[in-house]
Amino acid sequence: MIKKILSITLCLALVLALAGCGVSTHPDNVDANSDINIQNSSDTSETKSSLTNPLTGLNDLSNENADARPVAVMVNNITQAQAVQTGLNYADIIYETEVEGGVTRLMAVFKDFKSAKQIGSVRSARYPYVDLALGHNAIYVHCGQDPTYCAPHLKDIDDMSVDTGSTGAKRIKNGLSSEHTLYIFGNELWPTLASKFKSTGKNVMWQDFAAENETVTLAGGAADRVEIPFPILKTVFNYDSATGLYTRYSKGSAMKDYVTGENIKVKNIFTLLTSISDYPDGKHRRVDLSGGEGYYATNGTYTKIKWQKGDANAPIKITDESGKPIKVSAGKSWVCIANTSTCNPVMAASEATQSTQSN
To answer: Which domain, by its residues, includes 226?
Structure first.
């Protein structure tokens, strides 16, 4: 009994000593950079840390997703389907290049796949996107594939073709025909992907990212408006100096997420120029991913660049015209891969910028 009383007394003394020293026992006092995970009775989710997302350079990655492999998802981008796109704002990188007939398709890459509640509409795989996904060691998700050129290449990547009845996939009526209605749900599909494939991998920084609080200004000139004239439809971005982000436009209207209604926005825009030609069938498009020249735009400015990928498993690397690595703004990126012979990208200043420069 005496030992029990002494134990209680010592505990009370310790609590009083901590209070006297001004040390709080509340979880909010824990350093935000700490890897310590705090749980309480009302919230058992893992505390966010300051781990750096290797795809964006942003310090917003949770411990839970630190080693998770990225997931790359094929997204429909024909003109009528753009209005029903959702989940792109959750993506870290979005790739866009030509498929059949000059139409483009998107591939959205997610480091934290589970956070994207709904993604789509999901479309079929094409050869160059497999190489782009391989460059991130990503699990590749699509609905079907080109049987002649792409299908044999899928043996080189961890891929999953989803459709009606697949766990984590659902066709949802959106006013379009059935082939444009398939959506996936990250939190529902991830357990299946993790059980079928290796779910963790080594983190490699995609680019040489600047610090999150650093403003990158490029010397090529003003780029308040960026236009990439793909054969069927221009991809257009307008810069918003208030947010420091580019808003995606199509046919003069800001593109909005079908589910959330939010404008689609990114920090960085890369335009990579290369040779794009027909495969022997005269339909599907062959995209040369070995490298070339291009443009990089961020913070309303741009510069000319060189880019290189080469090996299917290698990520795209961006350099200045002399071949030296450049600093890339921390944030999400849109990568347009366009035909050198037909695409003349436009980097333009706004009227306000032009007026300032003239003065």
So the answer is: 221-358
Quick: pLDDT tens for 99-140: 998 899 999 999 999 988 899 999 999 999 999 999 999 999
Within this chain, do residues 134 and 251 fall inside the same structural domain, yes or no? Answer: no
Judge if 168 and 228 occupy the same domain.
no
The model's pLDDT over 320-342, given as tens digits with 9 standing for 90+, comes to 999 999 999 999 999 999 999 98
Q: Which of 228, 205, 222, 203 is nearest to 104 (CA)?
A: 228
How many contiguous H segments (helices) and E segments (strands) does the chain have? 4, 22
Give the contacts of 263 (CB within 8 A, at least 6 positions apart): 247, 248, 254, 255, 256, 257
Beta-bridged to residue 333, according to DSSP, are 93, 268
Within 10 angstroms of residue 58's Cβ, the number of other Cβ atoms is 18
| 220 CB-contact burial (10 Å; exposed 0-12 / middle 13-18 / buried 19+) | middle
171 shares a domain with 268: no
Mean pLDDT, the chain, rounded, equals: 86
Q: Answer yes or no: is 7 within a domain.
A: no
